[in-house]
From TrEMBL:
The lineage of its organism: Eukaryota, Viridiplantae, Streptophyta, Embryophyta, Tracheophyta. This is Major facilitator superfamily (MFS) profile domain-containing protein. It is a multi-pass membrane protein. Gene3D superfamilies: MFS general substrate transporter like domains. Belongs to the major facilitator superfamily. Sugar transporter (TC 2.A.1.1) family. It comes from Ensete ventricosum (Abyssinian banana).
Length: 394
């Protein structure tokens, strides 16, 4: 987290003083390094620090911070768009240093996780940290689980090879499928290109920026719903409900835009229909914000055994940003060719991923990380990959 924070600081500083495109690219690359380190470390940190019964809600603090950041960015962009002199964009990109400082200072003062301390042989320090964060002296059972998991993980010298073994097949599939599906919902089409999209369907320049702010606000509010319900109703319920809601709203948006922007359409929307499209997009954003948004980070962060945890989370982050990059590069071209059909395409992906959850994603609510192998062993499909001795070791 500290390394990522330093990269963020350098990137925001270089972007703010950029004199040419090359400096902007270098600054963005450094911001990308910071994002990569933060997305690797923060979800794992939260999952390892949280008690099992609160792990979902606490881990979703990561997604809540992300949604707040998106909302604040929208507000900053809306405000700096009116700055005279043509330097509003410098204010916008340089202000990334503010949350970066919070993250960097936090990384300095936060304690290491008990799992990390055990892994490095610092058992006394691990027990003290565990007692502090659990608020009780009685942590011997949980500490012993960590010690046994650590001892088992030390038998694995090459985690990148280990994650390819048969008993880790469920983990590898989830590490690839969940972050890929998270991006294939089309959420970044909305969040990256919301002003362009809203301007296309009839909103003016300032109105399109404000519409992006509205969708960002919905994103924040809906994430609070997920935090409040994830440890009560479980992961699968939120996955399924969010998938159905996204599917319906995307099909509806595609139908409206296809009717008015198709070959026989008028090419414009009335104010009422434009507002309806905005409402449907907000419904879609809300569904993502309490399902695939936070759960796309939560579930992978809690399913990996210690011996492949870092490798697994690295795959999750890599796959997530690979698909983010691909969708960002292809969206405008796809919009030109598919037009309203683009929403149908993403709706098809949502249908596939919802079925994937129904049949292949197990419920992990309330299960200690060190006992997660039992979840796979009880699953109708994945149980054939988990040997009995592996369950006992976990």
């Amino acid at each position: 987290m500290l390394f990522g924070g330093v990269a963020f600081l350098l990137g925001s500083a270089i972007n703010g003083i950029s004199m040419n495109v090359a400096m902007l690219i270098i600054g963005r690359l450094l911001l990308g390094v910071g994002v990569g380190f933060a997305n690797q470390a923060v979800p794992l940190y939260l999952s390892e620090m949280a008690p099992a019964q609160l792990r979902g809600a606490l881990n979703m603090g990561f997604q809540m911070a992300t949604t707040i950041g998106i909302l604040v960015a929208g507000l900053v962009n809306y405000g700096t768009a009116t700055v005279k002199g043509g330097y509003g964009w410098r204010i916008s990109v340089a202000l990334a240093a503010v949350p970066t400082l919070i993250m960097t200072v936090g990384a300095i003062v936060l304690p290491d996780t008990p799992n990390s301390l055990v892994e490095r042989g610092l058992r006394v320090e691990a027990k003290a940290t565990l007692q502090k964060i659990r608020g009780t002296e009685d942590v011997d059972v949980e500490l012993q689980d960590m010690i046994e998991a650590s001892e088992a993980s030390k038998q694995v010298r090459h985690p990148w090879q280990s994650i390819l073994r048969r008993e880790h097949r469920p983990h590898l599939i989830m590490a690839i499928a969940i972050p890929a599906f998270q991006q294939l919902t089309g959420i970044n089409v909305i969040m990256f290109y919301a002003p362009v999209l809203f301007k296309t369907i009839g909103f003016g320049n300032s109105a399109s920026l404000m519409s992006a702010v509205i969708s960002g606000l919905v994103n924040v509010l809906a994430t609070t719903v997920s935090i409040a319900t994830v440890d009560k109703f479980g992961r699968r319920v939120l996955f399924f409900e969010g998938g159905v809601q996204m599917l319906v709203s995307q099909v509806a948006v595609g139908a409206i835009l296809g009717t008015f922007f198709g070959s026989a359409g008028t090419g414009k929307l009335s104010p009422a229909l434009a507002n309806l499209v905005l409402t449907l997009i907000c419904i879609y954003v809300a569904a993502f914000a309490w399902s695939w948004g936070p759960l796309g980070w939560l579930v992978p962060s809690e399913i990996f055994p210690m011996d492949i945890r870092s490798a697994g989370q690295a795959i999750v982050v890599g796959v997530n940003f690979f698909f983010t990059f691909i969708i960002a590069q292809l969206f405008l071209m796809a919009l030109c060719h598919l037009k309203a059909g683009l929403f149908y395409l993403f709706a098809a992906f949502v249908l596939v991923m919802t079925l994937f959850v129904v049949f292949l994603v197990p419920e992990t609510k309330g299960v200690p990380i060190e006992e997660m192998a039992l979840v796979w062993k009880k699953h109708w499909f994945w149980k054939k990959y988990i040997p009995e001795d592996h369950v006992r070791t976990a």
